[in-house]
C-alpha cells in the first residue's frame, strides 16, 4: 500500500465561517494503482488533490493523517512538506497552460527547478530526453518558450517535469479538460504510460469526466459534497454502481450512439448542499430518489464487498 | 422540406495576424450549409477549427470576409443599425461562460429587463411579468428561485438557462448555442441539452457549436464536422456518426472516451493519409456520397475508406 489517507479534514477559512470542503475522507492506494477521482464542481476533488501536495493560505488542515510509503506526510506544515514535494509527491496542475514560467526557455526553467532541489541538471538531462521521447515530444522543445508550444504539448511537458524525480504519488488534476478530443487521448495515454513504466508508483487522476477516467483508471472514487460516496474497481463502478449518486451520474452521460429521440436522458434535480456548514445526515439526501428516514443519520463509508466501499444505508 | 432559416453560401473569414497585420489567417474557408426550422445542427470541430467564428458571423458579431449569410431570404452581412436590431429580435446567441456573461454588480434578472428596455418599451408591467414567467417556465426555472438574485447566488446551469429564457422573450427563430454546456456539471448539462431539444420542438432552428462529439450526437439532426476552417464531412447525424467516411471524422470518433469500450481495444486509424499530406491547408471539395451525406476526401473515388 503506497498511500493511506485517514479521516482527512480540510476546511477553507471564509468571513462567514469554515467551508468544510473535505470532511472525513478515508481511502488507500495500492502500489501501481491509478485512482480516478470524479465528482461535480465544488465536491472537494481538487481540494483533496491539493491537500496531498500543498495547502494554500486559505486552507486549514483540521484533522486526519496522510501516510505515504509508511511515512506520515506533514501536510499541515508548508515548510516541512518541501522535502516531499516533487521528489515523493508531485502534481500536474489543472492549468498546465500557465504552469510554466513564460520568461524562460523550457530547458533553462527545468535546470533552475532541479537546481533548486540541489540536483545538477546534467545528471537528469539524459533521462529528460528519454521521457520527452516517451510522451512524443522532441528534445528541441527545451530550447523553446512555453508560448511556442500548443496546449497538448505544454500539458505533456508539464507531465514530464512533474515526474522527473520518479515520485511515489502523482496527482493529475483535470489534465485533459482544456484539450481537444484527439489530443486528450494522447495525453491520457501518456499519463497511464508513466505508471506502466514504473516511473510513478501510484496516481490520482482527478476529472469531472467519468468516461475519460474509465479509460485509464484501475479504481474510481466518486466524491459528493466533501465526502466519498463510492470507491471500487473501475468496471464495478461503471457496470454495477451501488450509490444512488453514482447511478444517476452515469445515467446522465450522453454516449456516442445515444440520441435524444430514442432515449431521453435525465439530469439529477437539485444542486449540492452548501458546505458552510454541511447539513446533517447523508449529504445527497435532498436529491436522492431512495432517501428514507435513516438517511438523517450519516452513513458510514463501508465496504460491501472486497475493494468496493459505499456510503449509503440502502447499499449495506 | 421546410425552407432554410439560415443559409451560408461559400462563407470565408480572413483574420490579419502577426506584426502590423501583415499575415493572413484563413479561419473559415468556403463554408456552405443550411439550418431549417425545427432542426438542430451541430457544428463540431477542435479548437481553432473556426466553429465559433462561424457562429459569430451568423450573429453578425464578426463580419464575414466573403460569401453570403441569408436569414429568411435576406442577406444579413450588410445589415446596419435599425435593421440589425430587428435581426436580433429573431436571432440570438448563448455562449460558453455563463459566469462572465452577467455583470456581477447587478441582479441576474437585469438581462431580462434589458430586453424590455430595448425591444418592448410599450409592454405594461403586468403583461411583461407574464411573459417573463412564460419564458422561465419554458426553460424549467422556478421564478421564485432565480428572480431578484445576484449572479453568484445562482448555479451555472441556472444562469445558462436564464440566458436562454432571455432569448425566448424575443420572438426568435434562430438560437446559436456556442459551447453552452461545456462549463456545466454532468448532472445538470443534460437538462440544458434537453431544453435545447424542446426548443427545437417549438420550431426553432438551433446551431449547436461543440467540441464534444457525444453531446452533438445526442441532440442534432444534422452534423457538420470542421477541420481547419473547412467542412470535411456533413450530413444527417445518423449518417455521419453511423458511417463516418472522412479519416478525420473517424479519428475524432475513436478518440472520444466512452464507458464500456476502452481505447486499448480500439486502435486509432493509422495515419498519415493523403488528405493531411498533400493539402495541409484546405482539401478537395465536398462530394455527395449518399443521400444527405457529404464528404471531402480524395480517396472516395479510389475505393471507399482510406487510412
TrEMBL record, chain A:
<dbReference type="GO" id="GO:0016887">
    <property type="term" value="F:ATP hydrolysis activity"/>
</dbReference>
<dbReference type="Pfam" id="PF00005">
    <property type="entry name" value="ABC_tran"/>
</dbReference>
<feature type="domain" description="ABC transporter">
    <location>
        <begin position="3"/>
        <end position="250"/>
    </location>
</feature>
<dbReference type="GO" id="GO:0005524">
    <property type="term" value="F:ATP binding"/>
</dbReference>
<dbReference type="InterPro" id="IPR013563">
    <property type="entry name" value="Oligopep_ABC_C"/>
</dbReference>
<dbReference type="InterPro" id="IPR003593">
    <property type="entry name" value="AAA+_ATPase"/>
</dbReference>
<protein>
    <submittedName>
        <fullName>Dipeptide/oligopeptide/nickel ABC transporter ATP-binding protein</fullName>
    </submittedName>
</protein>
<keyword id="KW-0813">Transport</keyword>
<dbReference type="InterPro" id="IPR027417">
    <property type="entry name" value="P-loop_NTPase"/>
</dbReference>
<dbReference type="InterPro" id="IPR003439">
    <property type="entry name" value="ABC_transporter-like_ATP-bd"/>
</dbReference>
<keyword id="KW-0067">ATP-binding</keyword>
<dbReference type="InterPro" id="IPR017871">
    <property type="entry name" value="ABC_transporter-like_CS"/>
</dbReference>
<keyword id="KW-0547">Nucleotide-binding</keyword>
<dbReference type="Pfam" id="PF08352">
    <property type="entry name" value="oligo_HPY"/>
</dbReference>
<dbReference type="GO" id="GO:0015833">
    <property type="term" value="P:peptide transport"/>
</dbReference>
From TrEMBL, chain B:
<dbReference type="Pfam" id="PF00005">
    <property type="entry name" value="ABC_tran"/>
</dbReference>
<feature type="domain" description="ABC transporter">
    <location>
        <begin position="6"/>
        <end position="253"/>
    </location>
</feature>
<protein>
    <submittedName>
        <fullName>Oligopeptide ABC transporter ATP-binding protein</fullName>
    </submittedName>
</protein>
<dbReference type="InterPro" id="IPR013563">
    <property type="entry name" value="Oligopep_ABC_C"/>
</dbReference>
<dbReference type="InterPro" id="IPR003593">
    <property type="entry name" value="AAA+_ATPase"/>
</dbReference>
<dbReference type="GO" id="GO:0015833">
    <property type="term" value="P:peptide transport"/>
</dbReference>
<dbReference type="InterPro" id="IPR027417">
    <property type="entry name" value="P-loop_NTPase"/>
</dbReference>
<keyword id="KW-0547">Nucleotide-binding</keyword>
<dbReference type="GO" id="GO:0005524">
    <property type="term" value="F:ATP binding"/>
</dbReference>
<dbReference type="GO" id="GO:0016887">
    <property type="term" value="F:ATP hydrolysis activity"/>
</dbReference>
<dbReference type="Pfam" id="PF08352">
    <property type="entry name" value="oligo_HPY"/>
</dbReference>
<dbReference type="InterPro" id="IPR017871">
    <property type="entry name" value="ABC_transporter-like_CS"/>
</dbReference>
<keyword id="KW-0813">Transport</keyword>
<dbReference type="InterPro" id="IPR003439">
    <property type="entry name" value="ABC_transporter-like_ATP-bd"/>
</dbReference>
<keyword id="KW-0067">ATP-binding</keyword>
Amino acid at each position: 500500500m503506497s498511500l493511506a489517507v485517514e479521516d482527512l479534514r480540510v476546511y477553507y477559512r471564509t468571513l462567514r465561517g469554515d467551508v468544510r470542503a473535505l470532511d472525513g475522507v478515508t481511502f488507500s492506494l495500492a502500489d501501481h494503482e491509478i485512482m480516478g477521482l470524479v465528482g461535480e464542481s465544488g465536491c472537494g476533488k481538487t481540494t483533496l488533490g491539493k491537500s496531498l501536495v500543498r495547502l494554500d493560505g486559505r486552507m486549514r488542515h483540521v484533522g486526519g493523517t496522510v501516510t505515504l510509503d509508511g511515512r506520515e506526510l506533514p501536510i499541515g506544515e508548508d515548510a516541512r512538506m518541501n522535502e516531499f514535494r516533487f521528489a515523493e509527491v508531485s502534481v500536474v496542475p489543472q492549468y498546465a497552460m500557465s504552469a510554466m514560467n513564460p520568461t524562460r526557455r523550457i530547458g533553462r526553467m527545468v535546470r533552475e527547478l532541479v537546481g533548486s532541489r540541489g540536483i545538477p541538471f546534467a545528471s537528469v538531462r539524459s533521462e529528460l530526453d528519454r521521457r520527452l521521447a516517451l510522451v512524443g515530444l522532441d528534445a528541441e522543445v527545451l530550447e523553446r518558450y512555453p508560448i511556442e508550444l500548443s496546449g497538448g504539448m505544454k500539458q505533456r511537458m508539464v507531465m514530464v517535469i512533474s515526474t522527473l524525480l520518479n515520485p511515489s504519488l502523482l496527482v493529475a488534476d483535470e489534465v485533459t479538460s482544456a484539450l481537444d478530443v484527439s489530443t486528450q487521448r494522447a495525453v491520457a495515454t501518456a499519463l497511464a504510460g508513466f505508471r506502466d513504466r514504473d516511473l510513478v508508483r501510484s496516481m490520482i487522476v482527478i476529472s469531472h469526466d467519468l468516461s475519460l477516467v474509465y479509460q485509464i483508471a484501475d479504481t474510481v472514487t466518486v466524491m459528493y459534497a466533501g465526502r466519498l460516496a463510492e470507491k471500487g474497481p473501475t468496471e464495478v463502478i461503471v457496470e454495477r454502481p451501488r450509490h444512488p449518486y453514482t447511478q444517476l451520474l452515469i445515467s446522465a452521460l450522453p454516449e456516442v450512439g445515444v440520441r435524444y429521440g430514442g432515449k431521453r436522458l435525465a439530469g439529477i434535480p437539485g444542486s449540492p448542499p452548501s458546505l458552510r456548514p454541511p447539513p446533517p445526515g447523508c449529504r445527497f439526501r435532498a436529491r436522492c430518489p431512495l432517501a428514507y428516514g435513516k438517511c438523517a443519520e450519516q452513513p458510514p463509508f463501508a465496504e460491501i464487498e472486497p475493494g468496493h466501499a459505499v456510503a449509503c444505508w440502502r447499499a449495506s | 422540406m421546410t425552407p432554410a432559416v439560415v443559409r451560408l453560401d461559400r462563407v470565408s473569414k480572413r483574420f490579419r495576424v502577426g506584426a502590423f497585420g501583415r499575415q493572413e489567417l484563413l479561419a473559415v474557408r468556403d463554408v456552405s450549409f443550411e439550418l431549417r426550422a425545427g432542426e438542430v445542427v451541430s457544428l463540431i470541430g477542435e479548437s481553432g477549427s473556426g466553429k465559433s467564428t462561424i457562429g459569430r458571423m451568423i450573429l453578425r458579431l464578426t463580419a464575414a470576409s466573403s460569401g453570403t449569410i441569408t436569414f429568411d431570404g435576406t442577406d444579413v452581412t450588410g445589415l446596419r443599425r435599425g435593421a440589425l436590431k430587428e435581426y436580433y429580435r429573431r436571432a440570438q446567441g448563448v455562449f460558453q461562460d455563463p459566469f462572465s456573461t452577467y455583470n456581477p454588480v447587478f441582479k441576474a434578472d437585469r438581462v431580462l429587463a434589458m430586453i424590455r428596455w430595448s425591444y418592448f418599451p410599450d409592454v405594461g408591467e403586468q403583461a411583461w411579468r407574464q411573459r417573463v414567467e412564460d419564458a422561465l417556465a419554458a426553460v424549467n426555472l422556478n421564478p421564485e428561485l432565480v428572480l431578484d438574485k445576484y449572479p453568484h447566488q445562482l448555479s451555472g446551469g441556472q444562469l445558462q438557462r436564464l440566458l436562454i429564457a432571455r432569448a425566448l422573450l424575443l420572438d426568435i427563430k434562430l438560437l446559436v448555442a456556442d459551447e453552452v454546456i461545456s462549463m456545466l456539471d454532468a448532472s445538470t448539462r443534460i437538462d440544458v441539452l434537453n431544453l435545447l431539444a424542446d426548443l427545437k420542438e417549438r420550431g426553432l432552428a438551433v446551431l449547436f457549436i461543440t467540441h464534444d462529439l457525444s453531446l452533438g450526437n445526442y441532440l442534432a439532426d444534422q452534423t457538420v464536422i470542421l477541420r481547419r476552417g473547412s467542412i470535411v464531412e456533413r450530413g444527417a447525424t445518423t449518417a455521419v456518426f453511423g458511417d463516418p467516411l472522412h479519416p478525420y471524422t473517424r479519428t475524432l470518433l475513436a478518440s472520444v472516451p466512452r464507458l464500456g469500450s476502452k481505447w486499448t481495444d480500439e486502435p486509432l486509424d493509422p495515419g498519415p493519409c493523403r488528405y493531411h499530406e498533400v493539402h495541409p491547408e484546405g482539401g478537395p471539395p465536398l462530394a455527395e456520397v449518399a443521400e444527405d451525406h457529404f464528404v471531402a476526401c480524395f480517396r472516395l473515388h479510389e475505393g471507399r475508406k482510406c487510412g
